[in-house]
Amino acid sequence: MTKLGRAPTVEAFSKAFRQGMEEALQQAAGRDGRLSKKEAERLAKSGNVFADNALNYLERTKQKSVSIDKLLDRSEAYAYAMAKKVAGPNRRLSLLEARALPRDLRKDFFVLRGKTYDEGSTRPAAELSSELKTKLDAVFADRWVSTYDLHEAIEPQLKTITDPAARAAFAQAVEQYIEAHPGTADEDKVLEMTRQVYGAATGHLYPPGQQDAFKTALMGLDMDGLQELFGDWSTQIAECAHEADARNSQLFAALREGCRMINQAAVDKSDGDMTMLGLAVDDASSMWGDESIMDGIARAALDQHAPGSDWGALTTAALERRLNQLGGLDHRPLAVGRAEPISDAGLHDLALTIGKKGMAYATTDDVPFRLMQIDDILRELGPRSDLKMIKAATETADDLNDPEETPREAFMFVVYNERSGQHVNFFIFENSLEPEL
Are 282 and 227 in contact (CB under 8 A)? Predict the structure, then answer.
């Protein structure tokens, strides 16, 4: 059976699913190349994870048998369509995203990944209270169901459930309700709601007192599992950053703390080559995008110099070095400011510059999210009282004397710890088409 790698693409999953199902059907089908319902039932009794897909197809189509080739084609198309709906923007499936797959695909995914599937997630779901069902009926009476309305309906009851197994059962009950209402809202949106409800109930909004259990669970994951989990949570943080309601801010805070705990687990399991500061810097840089001169550049890098160094000279040298790495651009004399204690105004300037200059499609709504990323770095760099920031800026071009060439700005913000000498260099290079903020 084909084994999938970490976070496989939608295409890779659907093809591996077909191959795994083909191996199972070759053993179960008759010589005529067809699979009967009795043969599918025997396959299910043997414990084969692909049997339910064959049975579901036969029951759905009311057929007594189906040709193997037809069943494989339809099953691959089904796996592809369902995986595409729950995958992230990068069209990949993490272990958490896979839990949002339909029930007849979840275990298959875990088996293909070579992972143990938590059978507890398939336990019979809890019954919804009549009060909650009435609330959900009212929510889904409107075609344009909002995630906010859904959470407003379920959160009061969810808060009263502290047992993890009971929370998972509750999530499944809500999930079953949503799946039973096709057409009440955009299908992708319903799937996203299901995913959020399941995530909220099974850990993303872990209640006070559950953090020790969460930490224990994290230490049971390998590095790939931790990386996938972090990626899933950080994606949800980015989505939350664009919302303003109170419910979402609570989720934002819980996800953010969860990401920190995931990183700490990675540090604890590493051989000493990982630090919380290094991970915070890497996480921020990876979210700010690739280094593309046309689209702008926003990168953070960790460095170390002796306490008491000439930070103005170091900032100038750091900016010169980065400009040389871009091909030795012509630039005007660098304007270097004074070293100042960290302030809210200074951090806002840094966050705004990262988006306005370093990203082609940034908006002012992103500023709180970038401030959060910067704060995560500075929290690991040291106490705020020990930190100072210095800024250098210049204008660049291939040829500044060419009147037809529009100069582009470059910045270097250096935040350093006076006591340790550790510092983080934030390099921002202006995009070719400045966004409207």
Answer: no
Would you report the helix, strand and coil content of the chain in percent, each value rounded to 5? 55, 10, 30
Domain boundaries, the chain: 10-117, 130-269, 277-429
What is the pTM for the complete model shown?
0.55
- Separation of alpha carbons 381 and 221, rounded Å: 27
Q: Name every residue whose Cβ is closer than 8 Å to that of residue 395 and which is 6 or more positions away in sequence.
A: 331, 332, 407, 408, 409, 410
Report the top-level CATH class of 277-429: alpha beta
Q: Give the C-alpha separation, 428 to 359, whole Å.
A: 9
Q: CA-to-CA distance for 106 and 82, rounded, in angstroms?
A: 11
Are the CB atoms for 380 and 280 separated by under 8 Å? yes
Residue 96 scores a pLDDT above 50: yes
CA pair distance 396, 390, nearest whole angstrom: 20
Q: Helical H runs in 270-385?
A: 276-288, 311-325, 344-356, 367-381
Residue 329 clears pLDDT 50, i.e. is over it = yes
Which alpha helices (H) appear in 180-310, and where do they start and end? 187-199, 211-219, 223-240, 246-269, 276-288
Q: Distance between terminal CA atoms of the chain?
A: 51
Specify the length of the chain in residues. 437
- Give the count of beta carbons closer than 10 Å to the beta carbon of residue 128: 18
